[in-house]
Amino acid sequence: MAYVPTKKSDFDARLAPLLPDYSHAPPDAQIIELLQTNAPPTLVQTQSLQATLSETPNRIAELDSLIDSTASLLRYLTNDRNQALENQANAKKILSPCRRLPNELVTDIFIRCSLHDRDSSSLDLRAFRWTLSHVCRKWREVAIGTPEIWSNIILHFGHDPFLNGSAAFMLGVVLDRARPHDLDVFIRLKDDISTHPVCVVLLPTVRYWKSLKVYGNPDFLSPCRGFFDRLETVDVWCNDLVGPHTIISSSSTIIIHSMKIHPLPSVTLSISERCHSRIARIQVNHLEFASRGSPSSN
Fold first, then answer.
1. Are 209 and 160 contained in the same domain?
2. Helix pair angle (137-144, 103-114), 10° resolution
3. Which end of the chain has the smaller Cβ count within 10 Å, N or C?
4. At a CB cut-off of 8 Å and minimum separation 6, what does 39 contact?
5. Contact, 280 vs 254, CB < 8 A?
């Protein structure tokens, strides 16, 4: 059996102790020629081949042992490298400048974020307010404790896939986190929503509404007359009303700074006489006024 010196210089010097001093040589030309014919080996070749058969099993066992040891070393090195990477990531995370931000600044950042995401459904868990509240404990506490980012209520009845299942419960969570901040409410509807579970949860909060936009028939607001204590702006879009309808009726203690009623054929705006002087600006198109002393339409 032929051996050749192991060329340890081809390997990292730190691995030299693991390498054998000699390695098995590839078959010579005579052995290759014998493999290609049926000729018997010579006496010398026979002795060499018999030595190979007797010595090789022990040599293979030794190599297997080295392979196992090397594999164990490789696993150790791989695991240790992964642990080093994890320790590095943990150090970066702990030393992140975000951890040093005071809650007041984090709150201000969250509020500014809310100004750029005012079109998402209030019930969409992918919206920024829900995402911020699931990043870490600190952000969750700040997000839940910042009513401003929960105060924009957007509901698309009939088009919103989130207005199903536990929607009423989720809206209740949003409204609870928005207290006691003023609410900006946007509602789009086609059919009557007065008995919808989400509407049932929403209407008791009308005293906190600061602005209201309705795309559709606003009759579902009828039970709330006299409770719009904070309402300042009203914007109603609807083209399918026929006959007299009450758009909104307010108490005499509030000032509505702007009311816009967009094209509504043959619709009566009903506001008590005590409220006329409380509406600073009203813009109405194609509307008839039922009460005396009503402001003229613009």
1. yes
2. 60
3. C
4. none
5. no
Q: What is the DSSP string of 130-149?
A: HHHTTS-HHHHHHHHT-GGG
SS3 (DSSP) at 162: coil
- Which has the higher per-residue pLDDT, 161 or 119? 119
Range of the domain at 170: 107-289
* Spatial distance between the Cα atoms of 146 and 111, rounded to a whole number of angstroms: 8
Q: Are residues 70 and 188 located together in one domain of the fold?
A: no
Length of the chain: 298
CA distances from 13 to 1, 16, 17, 288 (A): 28, 5, 8, 96
For residue range 86-126, list pLDDT tens digits in order: 999 999 988 988 888 899 999 999 999 888 877 778 888 88
Instruction: Spell 174-184 as b/e; 16+ CB within 10 A means b.
Output: bbebbeebebb
Residues 239, 140: one domain?
A: yes
Neighbours of 243 (CB within 10 A): 7
